[in-house]
Every structure is written in structure tokens, then in C-alpha cells.
Design brief:
With 152 residues, the chain is mostly helical. It has eight helices and two strands. A hairpin with a 4-residue loop joins strand 1 and strand 2.
């Protein structure tokens, strides 16, 4: 969608709340007009955004065909009804700690090849020898020196 068309849709949506502040004026319906008055536009749009929650903005923008996203905190994501409904979060056992933790699950759902977590994330330093000695070619003595000096 071109910028003037998006600006018009946004202005119409803002107008439903009495906050369009002239965004529907023809001045703002061309790229040049938008550029020329961008500070005024940004302020009007910022005021509109501040008047709504992220969730309201996201759903409202989707209804009028504007691409939209907002950044959520970890706590907000953990409480997201959609993610809970689709079983996104997975409990993963950490036997060495005697408890389990909640991990994010599959980003997408597949019918024929279900995705799953098959083990916990590695602990800090768990694969040092495998990676540093096996992959990078360090000797066990080199690894011991790195460990003694606090590098790994």
C-alpha cells in the first residue's frame, strides 16, 4: 500500500475517535505533502497512539489493512491468550536442577512433521570441550589454561 493511501486509512481511523487533526485534508494525501508536514503528522499520530493500548492499536490497524506490530515484554508474551491457546509454551525438565522451566515452542505448526523440544538448553560451559577442543582444535591443556584464567 502506498504511503498516501495508508495515511488516508489511518486518518479515517483516527477520525472515528475525533483525533484526525486534519489528516484527511488533501495536503496530506501526497508524498510531498506528507514529507512537508511530517512533524505535524507525527505529533497527531503519536497522540493517537498514546490514547490506546498496544492491543487496541494492533487489532484496529489489522481491521483497516495496515501492517502493524508492537513489541511486548516477556510477561506480556507469557500471558498472551493466542499463544496459550495454540500450546506455544512447553514445559522442559532440567533434571540436574530438579525442576522444569517454560520454554517457547514451535513458531509454526506442521501437520505431518510436528516440531518438539527434545532436550533442555545446554548449561553454561556444558559443551566447552566438545566445541573448543573438538571443533576449534584446542588441546585439553589449552582448555585447562582458559578455565584456570576464568576465560571459560
Amino acid at each position: 500500500m502506498e504511503l498516501p493511501a495508508a495515511m488516508k486509512r489511518l486518518g479515517e481511523w483516527m477520525d472515528e475517535f475525533g483525533m484526525a487533526q486534519g489528516l484527511l485534508d488533501e495536503t496530506y494525501q501526497t508524498p510531498e505533502g506528507i514529507q512537508e508536514h511530517k512533524e505535524e503528522l507525527y505529533q497527531a499520530i503519536a497522540n493517537f497512539y498514546k490514547s490506546m493500548t498496544g492491543e487496541e492499536l494492533w487489532h484496529g490497524a489489522a481491521k483497516i489493512g495496515l501492517p502493524w506490530a508492537f513489541i511486548r515484554s516477556s510477561d506480556e508474551l507469557m500471558d498472551d491468550a493466542h499463544l496459550k491457546d495454540r500450546g506455544f509454551y512447553v514445559e522442559v525438565e532440567h533434571p540436574e536442577l530438579g525442576r522444569s522451566f517454560i520454554y517457547p515452542g514451535a513458531a509454526v505448526t506442521y501437520n505431518g512433521s510436528p516440531w518438539q523440544i527434545y532436550r533442555r538448553a545446554p548449561l553454561v560451559g556444558e559443551h566447552n570441550q566438545e566445541v573448543l577442543c573438538g571443533e576449534l582444535g584446542l588441546s585439553k591443556a589449552d582448555l585447562a589454561v582458559l578455565a584456570e584464567s576464568g576465560v571459560v
